[in-house]
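Quick question about two entries, pasted in order.
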Amino acid sequence: MAHVVFSSEHQDTAVRRAAVRAMAYAAWPEFKEALARLARTDEDPHIAWEAGRALEELEKTG
C-alpha cells in the first residue's frame, strides 16, 4: 500500500496514472486521502479526473 501511495507522487505521469489505477482496482479505504489529493492537485487533468472517479466509487462502496 505504501509503495502505491508513494508512486502516486512520482514525477512521471505514467507512474502516477498506474498508481491511480492500482488504487481504483484495490478499492481500499486507505487510499481515499491519496486519491483526494490527486483529484485536487495533479497537474495532469486526466489523472485528476481518474482519481476523482475512483474516489467517488470508493465512497459509494464504503
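Here is the second entry:
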Amino acid sequence: MTTEAYRMARAATRLKAAFAAAVGMNLVEALWDPSGLAWTAARLAAAALFTVAVVAYVALRLLRWRRTRSERP
C-alpha cells in the first residue's frame, strides 16, 4: 500500500468514526434530552472533529484527483 493510499484509508476511518460519534450523540439527544455545559462542550467537540475529518478527507481526495489528472499524457 502506498503512502497516499494509507493516508486515504486513515482519513476514511477517521471520517467513519466521527460520523458514528455524531450519529450516536444525535440518537442520545433524540431519546433523552441532556443539557448542561458538559453536553454542549461535547456537541461542539464532536462537530469540530467531524468538520476536520470531512475537510481532511475531501482535501486528500482532491489532491489524489489532481495527481492522477496531471500524470495523464
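Reply: The CA atoms of residues 15 and 53 lie 5 Å apart. The first helix runs from residue 3 to 31. Hope that helps.
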